[in-house]
Amino acid sequence: MKIFHFLEVDLKKFNHSKSRKIKLMICGSILVISFTVIGYRTISLASVNRDNITSILNKKIESRAFKSNLRGNIYDRNNNILATTIDTLSLNINPQEVLNKNETIIKLLHIFPQLDKKDLLKKFNTNKKHINLLREISPREHVRLLQTGIEGLKIQKRSKRIYPNNTLASHILGSTDIDGKGIAGVENKFNSKLQKGENLTLSIHSGIQHITRKLLLDQITRFEADGGAGIVMDAKNGQIYSTVSLPDYNANNYSTILNKRLFNKATKGIYELGSTLKLITAAIAFESKLINENEVFDVSKPLKVSSRIITDFHPLNYSINIPEVIVHSSNIGSAKIAEKFGSNIQLKYLKSLGMTNILSLEIPELGKPQVLMDKKVLTTMTISYGHGISITPMHLASVTATIVNNGIKVDPTLIFDQKSKKNKQIISPETSMKMKSIMRLVVSNKHGTAKKADVSGYLVGGKTGTAEKIKPNGGYFKKKNIVAFTGAFPMNDPKFIITIMIDNPKGQTFSNGFRTAGWVVAPVVKKLVTRIAPILDVKPQLESSSKFSNNLLNYKIRGKNKGANL
Fold it and tell me: Among 22, 171, 392, 537, which residue has the least CB neighbours within 10 Å?
């Protein structure tokens, strides 16, 4: 080549030693340049190759993934999350692509010791091309898996519904199945909305829900009861602050919903709630105007009707008026009142109060009341004190709200900030005032059956009920009871409804063997009002204040066994 020829000729002009040095310098320079170029090229290729590998790996994983449209969140009234959805990774494998099954199993067990070796061997020795090993793995576990080089791995993205509070409001929230579809509660009722990614805000107050559950559970445990239900509701718009059914379940484990023992006792279970329904009887009596307010009814002797004998738990030896019938909870008095206005008027008001139909509540777990409608005199009488009519505790809360809300129908709702709707006037404001006054006396008067529910300054009012539990095949258990309380506070201007039911409490030494509503349920109401009133910004007030006295009537209640003329 001409270049090398030039160098050769030119180098002859130098002596031998100088020529040798120059030759070495030139060759060294050429080698350095060559290695530099080669090294740069190698590094560049390595970098490109690494990026390509990463890209290919990512694409490989991405191709095995599916994009999830995250289900909408469910919030309580204070924007606390009750239910949300997160993306997780699941581990799947194609056994047909595994070259060394034993080695692969060892690697998998090293990362996931919870897996079973025998089970893995069984799964790997099938003809299936897709096997789920774990429904959820962590990002760290995912990285460790990629480092193993295991063949046939399939890492898939999936959505997971989580309920941060576990059991809290589980009967209301419901749950989703393995495919993310709502199968109970509001998850089911609003499934389409939630699947679109739209959020849902409930009227539930997480704090009050927790308090209601805790107090109810404590009392169920103390009295060795089978379960119970508790409701706190806005008396004017029907928004539910808490609704508890016990026993409940962890909403994160959807399979527990299938347990028949865990049905929603507040909205689906129907019960004879005993004397709490005397409130309806008194309201009908006032509203029908067929009974004079001062009219008295002789309750000194048991009342025989057909083959049935109606008695009182605490017999009185004199005649009593309507307020006294309710305060003393007289079955005989209630039966005689109902006899006067008759079955037609009774059924008319039961229907208008919503006591014969399923509630329009925003969950699918709703019970339909069972009401005897044979219009017999005996049936009319027994319904008057809560026998022959089975309803849900939520029905009772609804009718209580209607009675104390100046007679305007109140429909329970689980949705927060729902637009107010014009509801029908069921009873007059005058009748409502009379009922509020009587309900306050049931709690405040020394002869009242709900004395243990009284809370100084908060003007609690209501009605207790103790009923024999119905046998599955008809008839009644003599030693099993359903005990209940329904009421409101403060009674001069009712803002909140409280309805509590406890199923089959056992008499205890500290209750002198009693298992009635006055002993079992009333104390729960007292504790509940004490705890939640400050949260609800209900301030204590003096019962002697003009605001109170102007809104309630002062009925005089005579004591037990004092004689007819007292």
Answer: 537
E strands present in 32-102: 74-75, 81-93
Residue 118 has pLDDT above 80, yes or no: yes
Q: How far apart are CA 171 and CA 249, in angstroms?
A: 8
Tokens at 81, concatenated: 């999350």
Number of H helices, E strands in the chain: 18, 18
d(CA 531, CA 515) in angstroms, rounded, equals: 24
Buried/exposed 390-418: b ≥16 CB within 10 Å, e otherwise = bbbbbbbbbbbbbbbbbbbbbbbbbbbee
pTM tops 0.70, yes or no: yes
Residue 347 pLDDT: 96
Q: Are 481 and 467 in contact (CB under 8 A)?
A: yes
Q: 416 with 239: CB under 8 angstroms?
A: yes
pLDDT mean over 407-433: 90
Structure tokens at 265: 């006792």
Nearest to 366 by CA among 354, 381, 351, 348: 354
Ranking 59-73, 308-322, 328-342 by mean pLDDT, the lowest is 59-73
DSSP designation for 129: S
**Nearest to residue 465, comparing CAs of 508, 519, 510, 413?**
519
Q: What percent of the chain has pLDDT over 70?
A: 85
Instruction: Give the pairing type, strands 476-489 and 461-470.
Output: antiparallel
CA dihedral 322, 342, 431, 434 (to 10 degrees): 10
Residue pair 366/357 in contact (Cβ under 8 Å)? The answer is: no
Looking at the predicted structure, is the pLDDT value of residue 316 above 80? yes
Confidence of residue 472 (pLDDT cuts 50, 70, 90): confident
The segment(s) of the chain belonging to CATH 3.90.1310.10 are 74-201
Reduced to 3 states (helix: H, G, I; strand: E, B; else coil), residue 489 is strand
Q: Name the pLDDT band for 21 (thresholds 50, 70, 90).
A: low
**Bond before 364 cis per omega within 30 degrees:** no
Q: What is the C-alpha to C-alpha distance for residues 233 and 237, in angstroms, rounded to an integer?
A: 9
- List of E strands, 490-538: 496-503
More confident residue, 270 or 95: 270
CATH of 208-247+264-551, one of 1.10.3470.10, 3.40.50.300, 3.20.20.140, 3.40.710.10: 3.40.710.10
pLDDT band for 51, please (50, 70, 90 cuts). Answer: very low
Classify 216 as helix, strand or coil. Answer: helix
Q: What's the rounded Cα separation, in Å, for the pair 142 and 122?
A: 23
Fold exhibited by the domain 74-201:
Penicillin-binding protein 2a (Domain 2) (3.90.1310)
**In the predicted model, is pLDDT for residue 343 greater than 50?**
yes
Among residues 431, 434, 444, the alpha carbon closest in space to that of 489 is found at 444
The residue ranking higher by pLDDT, 146 or 227, is 227
Q: What is the pLDDT of residue 488?
A: 98
- Whether residue 3 is predicted with pLDDT greater than 90 in this model: the reply is no
Residues of the chain with CATH 3.40.710.10: 208-247+264-551
